[in-house]
Amino acid sequence: MPLLTVLIVIIVVGVLLWLVNTYLPMDRKIKSILNAVVVIVLVIWLLKVFGLFDSLGTLHT
User: Fold this and answer.
1) For the whole model, what pTM was predicted?
2) Helix (H, G, I), strand (E, B) or coil at 2
């Protein structure tokens, strides 16, 4: 996946999260949970895009 596509996805997710945080009236706790979920999903997606998530699954302790 090209780096430009990854950058565009990050920017779009950031703008959508900002719009939700700014314009939707929600409790602060719900907003923080939503922000955490979006960031965790984005990080997992980035790890998969760069191929690091697959290699983490093969580690044995």
Assistant:
1) 0.79
2) coil
Nearest CA to 3 among 61, 43, 50?
Answer: 50
DSSP 8-40: HHHHHHHHHHHHHHHHS---HHHHHHHHHHHHH
Q: What is the pLDDT of residues 3-61, one digit of tens each?
A: 999 999 999 999 999 999 999 999 999 999 999 999 999 999 998 888 887 766 666 66
Contacts of 50 by beta carbon, 8 Å cutoff, 6+ apart: none
- At 41, the amino acid letter reads V
